Amino acid sequence: MCGIIGYVGSESAVPIIIEGLKKLEYRGYDSAGIAVYNTPGFKVVKQKGRLAALESALNGCPVYGTMGIGHTRWATHGEPSDINSHPHVGSKNKIAVVHNGIIENYRQIKEYLERKGITFASQTDSEVIAQLAEYYYNGDILDTVIRVSNALEGSYALGIMCVNEPDTLIAVKKDNPLIIGVSGSGNFIASDVPAVLKHTNKIYYLNDKEIAVIQKDSVRFFNIGKEPLQKSTETVSWTVDSAEKGGYPHFMLKEIMEQPKVLRDTLRSSVDGGDNEKVLDSVDITRFNRVVITACGSAYNAGVVAKYVFERLCRILTETELASEFRYKNAIVDEKTLVILISQSGETADTIAAMREAKAKGAATLSVVNVVGSTVAKESDYCVYTAAGPEIAVATTKAFSAQLILLYTLAIRFSVKLGKITRLEETALLSELSLLPEKAADILKQVDSIQKYASECVGYKSIFFIGRNIDYSIALEGSLKLKEISYIHSEAYAGGELKHGTISLIEDNTLVVAISTNKRLAGKIMSNVEQVISRGAKVLLIGNCSEAEENEKVSIVTLPECGELFSPSLSVIVLQLFSYYVAANKGLEIDKPRNLAKSVTVE
Ligand code: F6R
């Protein structure tokens, strides 16, 4: 949450920073700002609202300079307003700061500085960083940043400029991501790789409490004791195109359409000597008597799917817990527990905390992560990567699908090692997986009919999702996707639970989306369908339910044939398209739903 970018080089900083902010807008979009060094001081322009508002402010008041920092905000302390937007500059106009994170002891620091006569301009926690840095500044910006870091409690990724050092950008982080990109025409700091991809794919990943001193032609690193550090760049494989809309109206639609490729790439890396396979081979699953999967939001839903798959294939007790609950419940995990973390960003605050809690209790941790070099990836004992490429839309689609296919492979591998399936059965399951990309592509061909159906659904006040067993777990994801982008009230229920309370909510003008991929339970879900129809609901049935017929109350989307365990990979695509087109027909800003941001780096 909140995106930061900085540039120092030979080119004009403003267009580079604005371009970078556009790629980071998914991290927050209630206000944006920019500060550029321009002799003899900083030019700061900041504006409440979307980045477009900042752009028009800059058009009216052009700013020149070759070093600057920019920020796109998701408000935590202080409402979205011009004054609360970043960058924040100390009252002597000496130090400018952009911040991603939360400063937990900001009140104490603010009171301390106010007693020293310093006047604050904003209600943010972040302003204390600029004010404290100015207060401590002794002519050496590195010393100052070290002192400030030592004084701050909480989480921060910071980009800092000082008027006395007009060619130097400073970066430091703790518990929030920050990367440094290097190129022939200058160097960058950013919250995420897509912000700099247009200029470079050579990246330094900053670790907690490491400080980078960045100039046009050099990047130097220091630890918090001011000792120099040696770091090397990594080459990122993501391309510039992968972070562009490529002609689609929204990133979300583009990312939905990319899923066949993403499934193929992720699978490739997990079999036949691919990088993930090597990692999986090194995990001795026989050491463990329990698996705990923990994650947030959609990643949690992928974990709910995985619980069914793990228990079915590996016959190992598997629990899936919300990371925000796991971290505070004094979880019962020990060295005989394998804790699996799932995270697209690898920077979700609750998932990081859950991972650290699990490690502190002696559990082994294995992460399923999309962003290379992220905190979860680095700190977990084992890490396998989804090959989803950069995901820009706030609502996850392709990363979710990549998580599913990787988790299936995990379950298959572990099942063999546990002696629960034979090599022959393994081959059969893997070959079933290899057909998923093609089947996903077949579903995407039904886009027009799903779009048409969704366009008739914009008027519903409530939409319920039901399923049983693994279909229930994907119902959770369908419901989350719909509510987050369409703002229609929605809940997911296990079909059998309807008559224990929820059915009282079913009336005219209710839609029930029923998922039925499980032949054993098809009859049961069809009974649920009858029950809701007789109470006035309409039904969208997704699956391969041969006994169902379309009529004025029931519409059907038929999925390609697929075993029950892997069917979520197909049903979810219908659910994603349905949500997307409901939101599109309501004319909503799909890639940036209200109040949300991607990469939830604050608690
Ligand atoms: C929903 C969505 C979120 C994320 C959640 C976890 O569409 O995208 O619910 O799944 O914030 O994020 P990561 O996977 O980055 O840990």
- Mean pLDDT, to the nearest integer, reads 95
Number of helix segments? 19
Rg to the nearest angstrom?
25 Å
Q: What is the overall shape?
A: globular
Report the sheet with the most strands, covering strand number, pairing sense and barrel closure. 8 strands, antiparallel
Order of strands in the sheet with most strands: 3-2-4-1-10-9-11-15
For the terminal residues, how far apart are their CA atoms?
10 Å
Strands, count: 25
Tell me the β content: 15-25%
Give keywords.
binds fructose -6-phosphate; alpha/beta; 603 residues; 36% helix; globular; 8-stranded antiparallel β-sheet
What is the strand and helix layout of this fold?
Layout (H helix, E strand, L loop, with lengths): L2 E7 L3 H12 L6 E8 L2 E8 L2 H10 L6 E7 L14 E2 L5 E9 L2 H10 L11 H10 L4 H11 L2 E9 L6 E6 L4 E5 L2 E5 L11 E4 L5 E5 L2 E5 L5 E2 L4 E2 L15 H7 L1 H12 L4 H7 L8 E6 L1 H18 L2 E6 H4 L10 E7 L5 H12 L3 E6 L5 H5 L2 E4 L12 H20 L5 H12 L1 H9 L2 H9 L6 E6 L2 H17 L2 E6 L15 E7 L5 H12 L4 E6 L10 E5 L9 H18 L18
Parallel strand pairs: 16-17, 16-18, 18-19, 19-20, 21-22, 21-23, 23-24, 24-25
Antiparallel strand pairs: 1-4, 1-10, 2-3, 2-4, 5-6, 6-7, 7-8, 8-12, 9-10, 9-11, 11-15, 12-13, 13-14
Helix pairs in contact: 3-4, 4-5, 7-13, 7-15, 9-13, 9-17, 13-14, 15-19, 16-19, 17-19
The structure holds fructose -6-phosphate (F6R).
